[in-house]
Amino acid sequence: MTAQLDFLTLREIFSRFQAAEAEPRGELEHVNVYTLLVAVALSAQATDAGVNKATRGLWPVADTPEKMLALGEDGLIEHIKTIGLFRNKARNVIQLSRILVDRYGGQVPSSRAALQSLPGVGRKTANVVLNMWWGLPAQAVDTHIFRVGNRTGIAPGKTVEAVERAIEDNVPAEFQRHAHHWLILHGRYICVARKPRCGDCLIRDLCPFEEKTL
Q: Which residue among the candidates 6, 48, 53, 142 is catalytic per the annotation?
């Protein structure tokens, strides 16, 4: 495992990320916190682009839990059938919408524990919602962050939870809010799984990865 980078190196890395894109944004399209929650839940084992294509026709007719329940599971499936695991995801979305109406007055709760109690909502989904909607410095570790964290030494760890903790413990506080977005985007477009684009990398000189490409 790559060794954890030191504070000064991390500060320089995230200073460069910030200079390149001061306010990184998630790529899932949404119109409110409920549609953000649903979009993130739908994105498991699917691409953001694929989810966005499916939900562009969904949000105009089902942007609240009440409207989603009125649409029903079969109606939802018609919108999201191009997304992987669509039947199970549709079932979860209808169930979580019912819980939101019955237990939370139709509002999305703003705690990790409450969010994770909803069907189909794990820690990563909860962290995305907490970060993107409420500005909490929560770190949603996906495959991109896991790869970048371990490959670069920014946040090494053998598990998703360990990488999340490494980010929280080591990244300077002033960069915590946007840390996971910078890392996701870096992993999605530069530090890709195969043939990373090291020649285009902002932090090439600070990265200990031994198999750098040209």
A: 142
